[in-house]
Structure formats: C-alpha cells, structure tokens
From TrEMBL:
Keywords, sorted A to Z: Acyltransferase, Transferase
The protein's name in its UniProt record: Acyl-phosphate glycerol 3-phosphate acyltransferase
Source organism of this protein record: Paenibacillus sp. BIHB 4019
UniProt xrefs under CDD domains: LPLAT_AGPAT-like (cd07989)
GO annotation (BP), single: phosphatidic acid biosynthetic process
Length: 194
C-alpha cells in the first residue's frame, strides 16, 4: 500500500517537474521475472525507470542509504535492497536472483555509475538474467532533469537471449552485456531530444 501511494505521488511530481513520459510499457511482460536494464544519467534514474511501470520495480542500493533515518526504511519499502560499497556482493546477487525467480521486476544500471555513461558496462545484469531466466528489457532515459524540460523513458523490445542460454563459451557474459547495451544505446540514439 505504501509503495502504491508513494508511486502515485512520485508520478505526479515527475510529471509536473520533468514532464515525464513513458513509451513502450507494453513491452514489459505482465508477469514473470523481468530485468529493466537502463542507462544511468542521474540519481533520479531509479524512480524515473520504475514510476510509470504497472509492476513494482526493485533495485540494489548502496548500503549507506539504508542507515539514513526515514529514508532507509522508505527505500526498503519501495523494494530496494542493500549492496556494500566497492562492488556487488555474492549476497546481493543471490538476493537479486531469488527476487526474480519469485517473478518480480528488477531495475539494473549496467554502466554502474553516472560517471561511466557510454563506458564499459558491468556483466552483473547478464549473469543475473541467465541465472534467473528473466526477460531483459532495454530502457533508455532521454532528456535531462532540468525543471520543466521533458524526460522520456523508452522501454524496448525484449533482448533475445536464446543464443546465450546454452552457450558455454567463456566470453558469453561479455557478449550478452554488449547485446543489452547495444539495444539500450540504439534506443537512446533513435530518440535523442534536441
């Protein structure tokens, strides 16, 4: 209930402040495990990716955020779970896979940080997708977060994982990560705002 209330309030806030639009929501399956893989441009990105999605979207978040009074319990209620600084731990990966195997939706930013925009993406999303049998949806956040300037979130068609499922080659996670980010970057390029 708390999630639905705050998602509604965030929708109103994002629509008013950033003229937020979402396109391609029909590409997100109505049930089953889903990973939304997005580019990362701002601290505003997690709510931006999830606020218009009809299903609850879960995220990994820095462990330090959970220690902040009021904010920590709030993000936990929104479906976030902690990750230790310095990389994603085995516990965080297990939590993500369990969450997905239970049929939930997870948002992941393969670039890792805002400073790595367009850089080499991390392989975690690919590994989690293959281990959980999740559908991977590429997501592009286009626009900037200047007040009253439009931000649009584009949800693309699912990434085709069939070539990777039974592949045992040592570079399969690299290749799947490249395939995911290629789709994300293609969405960005096709929808660049001037």
């Amino acid at each position: 209930m708390l999630y639905l209330l705050f998602r509604f309030l965030l929708r109103v806030l994002y629509i008013c402040l950033f003229r937020l639009e979402a396109k391609g929501l029909e590409n997100i399956p109505a049930d089953g495990p889903v990973i939304l893989c997005a580019n990362h441009v701002s601290n505003f990105d997690p709510p931006t990716v999830g606020v218009k999605v009809p299903r609850k979207v879960h995220y990994m978040a820095k462990a330090e955020l959970f220690k902040i009074p009021v904010f920590g319990p709030l993000i936990r209620a929104f479906g976030a779970f902690p990750v230790k600084r310095g990389g994603v731990s085995k516990e965080a990966i297990k939590s993500a896979i369990t969450l997905l195997k239970e049929g939930n939706v997870m948002g992941i930013f393969p670039e890792g940080s805002r400073r790595n925009q367009g850089g080499e993406a991390k392989k975690g999303a690919a590994m989690i997708a293959l281990r959980s049998n999740a559908v991977v949806i590429p997501v592009a956040i286009v626009g900037n977060y200047s007040l009253f300037r439009k931000v649009t979130v584009y949800y693309g068609k699912p990434v085709d994982l069939t070539a990777f499922i039974d592949d045992s080659s040592p570079d399969k996670l690299d290749r799947l990560t490249d395939a995911i980010m290629k789709d994300v970057r293609a969405l960005i390029a096709a929808n660049k705002q001037t």
